[in-house]
Structure formats: C-alpha cells, structure tokens
Amino acid sequence: xxxxxxxxxxxxxxxxxxxxxxxxxxxxxxxxxxxxxxxxxxxxxxxxxxxxxxxxxxxxxxxxxxxxxxxxxxxxxxxxxxxxxxxxxxxxxxxxxxxxxxxxxxxxxxxxxxxxxxxxxxxxxxxxxxxxxxxxxxxxxxx
Length: 143
Fold this sequence. Notes:
It is a single chain. The protein is mainly alpha-helical. Helices cover 48% and strands 6% of the residues. Strands 1-2 form a two-stranded antiparallel sheet. A hairpin with a 3-residue loop joins strand 1 (66-69) and strand 2 (73-76). The longest helix has 28 residues, at 80-107. It is elongated, with a radius of gyration of 23 Å.
C-alpha cells in the first residue's frame, strides 16, 4: 500500500490513515475484494503504533467498507467504492460546494472560465525559462 507518510496535526493519525485508504479506494488503487495490508506491516512501514493502525482500520469496518475474515485478514467489501462515492458526493455538496459556489460568485467567474481553468495547480509542465539566444540567428531560433 502506497500511503503518503506525511502526517499532520489537523486530525488524529488513525483518521488520516482511514482517509488515505478511502482516497486509494476512490482513485481505484485498491479494488473491491483486495486485502488490506496487515496492521503489523503498516505499523512497521510507517512507524506507527499498531493500535493506531487498528483504530483506522476499525473505522473502515464500522463504515462497512472493509470486512474482517477470521484468520485471513481484512478485505475491501463489495460495493465499497460505490458507497464511498455516494457518501463523498453528498458530503461535498452539503459542506464544500456552498463555499466553492460562494467563491465563484464573489470572483464573478463564468462557467466557461471554470471549464477552461487547469484542473490542478500542476496541470501541465511549467514553461521552460528562455535559454540564451543563439548568436548566429537574430530571432534566437536554431534553423
């Protein structure tokens, strides 16, 4: 499991672990039926207390996104991705969208401007800084 190991103080680590596993499910990195890495392995790899990892995993079980299989470990439940997507959409529309919509209105952005905007700050490669002009050509281009 490839989880970013930068933990912050915004919320408990077990919750951050849970949120990162959820993101991996939504992004398709982890698929339904896939096993979760063992608590012991995650704790060792990320230098966490095994109880912290277990608490994060238990949240996933409580949300019925993961099922425990006695003696075999934990596995992503069938329907977990669809349930998560539905829940995340509802959460976005209820709490994030009103703020985003207010910002859009405040800035006077049109739908066209929003659709043409880059999808992320690193949406494309940064333009290369201009190099030294070729002294043989007045326009600076090699021919």
